[in-house]
Amino acid sequence: MFHAALYDEDQAVILTYAWDRLLIDPVPGPRGPDSFTGLEPMTPAVWAVPAKARPIAPAGSTLPRLAAELPHTFALIDPHHGTEGITRQLEELISHLSPASIDLLDVGGDILARGDEPTLKSPLADAVTLAACCQVNAPIRLLVAGPGLDGELPPDDLRGVLGPLVRTLTAKDVEPISSVLEWHPSEATGMLAATARGIRGTCEMRDAGLPVPLTDEGPTVHEVDLDDALSRNQLARAIMATTTLDEVEAHSREICGYSEIDYERNKAARLKEQPPVKLDPEAVLSQLDQFEAEARSSGATHTTFRRITEALNLNGSLREDLRQLLISKRPQQYAAPLWRITASGTTIQGEPTP
What is the pLDDT of residues 20-66, one digit of tens each? Predict the structure, then answer.
């Protein structure tokens, strides 16, 4: 989406994590090259994830399908060798490609977190990437899109540290990934696209039901000085010389009070104990009515399909079936790629919503 909006070239190399969280990947933490078959070497430390690649069960990943549907090359960030490992990957890739430009893109802005914010939930991936980018001998532009859309830092906390406006995304900018939004579970990207399409309100997201404002700030993209970001991010500064993911986690526990991978480990253990639940359309719609009533009472106007899946205590593997069911039964509530929570008493397909 950003590449189409900001550049004329047809293709980009997107260096990214295989870290789809438990909704897609039941294994806690990020995946490394040893979690896939069919990867293609780009440099000694960097592997491309082509459409033919497959995660090795029980791991899961959206990257092969993204590679199949988009024209770009997807390369794998492997954080298992700490910041030094990612720095080496970046340096090798830059040497191999000689890119005209390099952008470090964060949706939501939690890459600018200090580390002690009570709303911060997932600082690790941002911090280790930022730390690596600050050690590479090449110009890298830090872009923050959708301030506050990941539900981790309030927009009010970010306004004073955002740099110049680079772009305000529009519905036209979303079109290149519109088909991907129909299946990809990323909540932050979904809300970014929704705000670019003009959707406004409050979106309830994640398993905790975090309220995220959908405002005119949502589709904006700002540049931020890389060194300023590093000076704010205590975790990034602490992990500059780390050589393992375990070290990064230890620093995260010390500075932030937790590791997000510990959270995933605990949640994965709880999910294993849950008995499998089948998708019962009548029961699902009844549960949805109750969920919507509660969300509406808290001020939510929209939610994500990930949030609905988890709120209804359904296995992540049922997310797509649930989505298709809801859209088929109540199409007027589909505000692509979000779900609209209707006001009490509104009519959907001739039936009053409780």
Answer: 988 899 999 999 999 999 999 999 999 999 999 999 999 999 999 99
Torsion over CA: 155, 158, 163, 166 (sign): negative
Vertex 163: Cα angle to 159 and 164 (nearest 5): 115
Query: Are 220 and 165 in contact, with CB atoms under 8 Å apart?
Result: yes
Across 251-281, b (16+ Cβ under 10 Å) vs e yields bbeebbeebbbeebeeeeeeeeeeeeeeeee
Give the pLDDT confidence score for residue 208 in this predicted structure. Answer: 85
In 3D space, the residue among 258, 170, 10, 241 whose CA is nearest the CA of residue 249 turns out to be 258
Encoded amino acid at 55, one letter: P
Of 267, 343, 341, which is closest to residue 310 (Cα–Cα)? 267
Considering the entire predicted model, what is its pTM?
0.93
Specify whether the CB–CB gap between 256 and 127 falls below 8 A: no
Residue segments in the chain with a per-residue pLDDT below the cut of 70: 344-354
CA 93 distance to own-chain centroid: 23
Q: How far is Cα 304 from Cα 307, in angstroms, rounded to an integer?
A: 5
CB count within 10 Å of CB 66 equals 18
Helix (H) or strand (E) holding 36, with range, is: strand 36-37
How much is the pLDDT for 36? 98
**CA dist., res. 145 & res. 147, Å (int):** 6
Q: Positive or negative, the Cα torsion across 326, 327, 330, 334?
A: positive
pLDDT at residue 348, as a whole number: 40
